[in-house]
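G., the chain you wanted modeled:
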Amino acid sequence: MLRPDQDDYAEEAGLQELIEQFEGYYLTREYSYFDEEALERIYEYYEARMEEGKMEAVADLAIEQNPYSADFLTRKAELLFNRKAFQKALSLLDKAVVFDATHIDIYLLKSDILLELNQAEEATATLMHALQLADKEEKDIVLAELSDIAELGEDFMAAFRYL
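Predicted structure as C-alpha cells:
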C-alpha cells in the first residue's frame, strides 16, 4: 500500500498524464476519449490556473462526450455568463435542469443571469424554487442569495428575514 505522500505523488502524476493527453487533443483536435471524472479533473486544473480558453475546450469536449452531464452544461453556461452571453447561458441551463433538476448551481447561476438582465422577480422565483430542492447547507447559500436580491431592491426587512 502506498504511503500518503506516495499516494499524492501518484495522484499528481496521473493528473499530469491526463493534462498531457488533453494538451495533445487540444493542439491536434484528433479524437480522444476521456471519462467524465478525468474531464472534471482536467477542468479543475485549468480553472485553478484561470485558463478560460482551455476550460471552455474541456467543457465543450465533456458535453460532446457526455451530453447529459448537467455539471458540464452548467460549467459551460458559467463561462458564457462571464462573457455576458446571457441567452446562450440560459439555454444551456434549461438543458441542464432537464438532466438534473436538483443541481442547485443551475438555479444559482440562472438567478445571477436574470439579475444581470434586470429580472429580479424572476431571479427570486428561481431561487425560491431552488430553496425547495436544497439540502441544509445549500439552503443557507440560497437564502443568502435571496437576501442579496432583497437588499438590491432596498427591501431591507426581507433581506434580514432571509438571513
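The chain has two domains: 1-67, 85-163.

Shout if anything looks off.
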